[in-house]
Amino acid sequence: MFTPPVSQCPLCPRLVAFREANQAAYPSFFNGAVPPFGALSARMLVVGLAPGLKGANQTGRPFTGDYAGIILYTGLKNVGLAEGEYKAKPDDGFTLIGTRITNSVRCVPPENKPTPAEVTTCGTFLKAELAAMPNLKVILSLGLTSHQSVLKNLGKRQADFKFAHGAVHDMGNGLLLVDSYHTSRYNISTGRLTQAMFDEVLRKIVGLLG
Predict the structure, then answer these.
(1) Residue 147: inside a domain, yes or no?
(2) 59: burial class by Cβ within 10 Å (0-12, 13-18, 19+)?
(3) What global pTM score does this model have?
(4) What are the tens digits of pLDDT across the range 146-175?
(5) How far is it, in rounded angstroms, from Cα 99 to Cα 138?
(6) Per-residue model confidence as pLDDT tens digits over 23-43
(7) What is the rounded CA–CA span in Å between residue 15 and residue 3?
(8) What is the C-alpha separation between 108 and 55, in angstroms, rounded?
(9) What is the CATH number of the domain that holds 167?
(10) Within-domain flag for 3
């Protein structure tokens, strides 16, 4: 049975110190290890980087409250993998369909940049999560860090699977890894990613799911 990290996870000293500072600065925020969103029975798992300070770290739901979530949740609804109205709060009634969302690192890191050691430490939870999803067919990695973490926790060699937007990698046993640029505000503002580009990747995944 998959057990996510406790809200006040003690495993990464730097993240704990940052959390404690945020608890003082923003006492109304969630300020903890953000749990996944969606059922373990889902056929697709979206893996992001880490909670945003005033996004998921504030709301307690992945990608909820920051710009990246607007792109992600709009795209999921556009292709029929979610329903309802996304209002950037955990009680908005927005529902995922056959989809689950998690992060490579569950606690907000300073400057939104987890260290390799933090990704490795939190990877134990991702590994357990992957193993606990019996119907999993597609993993969508948002960004290079997610891509690398997924590969590591599936026991795959990084050199065998190069990250590229829209790439589809066969992990064996009927499991596919699909890559996308992260839905961050930076990637959208620079034109590296657009809503249309992201939706195209999601439509590809819908086709793969059958």
Answers:
(1) yes
(2) buried
(3) 0.97
(4) 999 999 999 999 999 999 999 999 999 999
(5) 10
(6) 999 999 999 999 999 999 999
(7) 20
(8) 9
(9) 3.40.470.10
(10) no
